[in-house]
Amino acid sequence: MSMLRVHAIGPAVTVQDLGRPGHIASGLSRGGAADAMALAEGAALLRQSTDFAALEMAGFGGSFTANMPLRIALTGAPMRATLGGAPVAWNASHLLPKGARLEIGGAQAGVYGYLSIGGGIDTPQFLGARATHLAAGIGAVLHAGQSLPLGPDKGGPVGQGLSVASRFGGGTARVIASLQTDLFSLDEIARFQATIFHRDARANRQGVRLIPEGAGFGLASGQSILSEIITPGDIQIPGDGAPFVLLPEAQTTGGYPRIGTVLPADLALLAQTPAGAALRFAFVTLDKALDIHRKFQTALAQLPAQCRPLLRDPRDIADLLSYQLISGMITGTEAP
Amino acid sequence: MQGPDLYPQIHPIGLTGLLVRFADRLTEPANRAALAFRAAVEAEDWPGVAETSSSLASTYLRFDPLHLPHAELTARLHRLIASADWYAAPPPQGRCLWRIPTLYGGPGAPQLAEAASLAGQSEAEAIATLSAARTRVLTLGFAPGQPYLGELPENWNIPRQSAITPQVPAGALVVAVRQFVLFANPSPTGWRHVGQTAFRCFRAEAEDPFTLRAGDEVQFPAVTIGQYREILADGTTNGGASVEPIV
């Protein structure tokens, strides 16, 4: 059986897949990858199903070897990675030879990096998924010395690269009105959209806290809220006035007022915004939100078709191709 | 008969959710309506509806708005709402009655005296009242398998604490606003810790990890410290709990 051996590991590396939908009624949130788009990118690079489990590495990766050759893909927050000592490209697939050391260091931007493997990580399923759910006590963070079982790889290309949506340094998250948006005054909603927030150091797979530049937010005093279902992306306004945006491992119900909900297409941006980076929110209409959602689903489905052979530094490809088109000549210097 | 004129209401919750609210606060009829309406939505089995659940006074639907537009689902929900008096609906079928042995007061549940005083009872009276109360699982939430149970007699409409208890253990029985919560995991709480059980609401190692269902009924009979220790030592039961179907 193929195994991935963990020689050293960051403090918050977990096995993740798309989580366990369908258990909100029992109080268990879906969980799964904080940046599900990165999981899909890894699956696309390896030409395999998005149902396979991968390693989610919060902030820092680890050091790994395998007992047989593996296809791997590196996606999500870019991290310094070497394979047998030589740097390897991020957002790309590679061959990890048997016994060769894969070293993944700290995140250079963003928060969550992903190591996907051909055949997926084959730890036991619980309620139909392998995702670690730390808040619910399902699974645990990885530790050095562990070996992870891997599923059989049906095979496919390596040396593929992918240009990915930028989402690793903050930005603007698009928001739709939700259950309690109407409880906030129009002035307060306008100020919310005009405010620049900075991600607090307090953040995990349950949610991220955002510190506003200027005054905090809230309802007029005395308004009590009945606890209701929470969905990922909900922007809670707790008593301290600093918004808390809920992520896949959030609790299933909450009694704080919610000013809106971040669209599914922008959840990866939220999760990947590093501590201190700036975020803003922009409300969109339901029609616009559905249009964004449709394009997002289409983009996810088209990821496999976007993968390209990784011949040279991807930053150079566009220029080189245009040069060839214009001149009609190949100088021979483009080769890697 | 329907509730106050304003309800039921249908609200969006995120891009992929709708919430049918039967009241803006917990009431017995609204909770029954939420449970029964969720069962009815499940029975409809509409394509595009991915998941349903109920909370204290509402029913939630998660759906795919690209295949089942908001307007169409909203229209279906309005028709279903109009088809019955949900506030008078009988509880769902297949429910169970649980009896979970509870050690009230003492060092393991240090806020019994304070809670009893707020409820206008002696400690002995409070234990008798809370032991006898046959509560219903109003909803499961916050943590996996964790029940909110009610309603307790009116004198137990006691407020939450102004301060937060940093941590109560798993199995802690806490009380406020005519409800119990039975904690699934160690947790901070603003409710008062009146009893301790060895019952586990969520067992990650079990085939069916969620012990209780919304609508189940639960009693918390008092046991002595000796009986409680025997339950802990036994280990073959889930905290000494018994269960029987409600027919």
Structure explained in plain terms:
The complex is a heterodimer of chains A (336) and B (247). Chain A is of the alpha+beta class and 336 residues long. Chain A has two domains: 3-161, no CATH class; 171-297, Cyclophilin-like (Cyclophilin, Beta Barrel), CATH 2.40.100.10. Chain A contains six helices and 22 strands. Chain A has helices at residues 36-45, 186-194, 267-272, 286-301, 303-306, 314-327; strands at residues 3-9, 13-16, 54-58, 60-66, 70-76, 79-83, 86-87, 92-96, 102-107, 112-117, 147-149, 160-161, 171-176, 197-204, 207-212, 228-229, 234-236, 244-246, 253-254, 258-262, 278-283, 308-309. In chain A, the strands form five sheets. Chain A has a seven-stranded mixed beta barrel with strand order 13-20-17-18-15-14-21. In chain A, strands 7-6-9-4-1-11 form a six-stranded antiparallel sheet, with no helix packed on it. The radius of gyration of chain A is 21 Å and the shape is elongated. Chain A starts with a strand and ends in a 9-residue tail after the last helix. With 247 residues, chain B is α+β, with helices and mostly antiparallel strands. Chain B folds into two domains: 4-88, 2-Layer Sandwich (Gyrase A, domain 2); 96-245, Cyclophilin (Beta Barrel), CATH 2.40.100. Helices cover 23% and strands 26% of the residues of chain B. Chain B has five helices and 15 strands. Chain B has a nine-stranded mixed sheet. Chain B has a four-stranded antiparallel sheet with strand order 1-2-4-3. The longest helix of chain B has 17 residues, at 28-44. Chain B is globular and about 60 Å long. The model of chain B has no long low-confidence stretch (mean pLDDT 94). The interface between A and B is large, with 39 and 41 residues.
Give the tags:
heterodimer, A: 336 residues, alpha+beta, 2 domains, seven-stranded mixed barrel, six-stranded antiparallel beta sheet, 22 strands, 18% helix, 30% strand, disordered C terminus, B: 247 residues, Gyrase A, domain 2, Cyclophilin, nine-stranded mixed beta sheet, 5 helices, 15 strands, 23% helix, 26% strand, globular
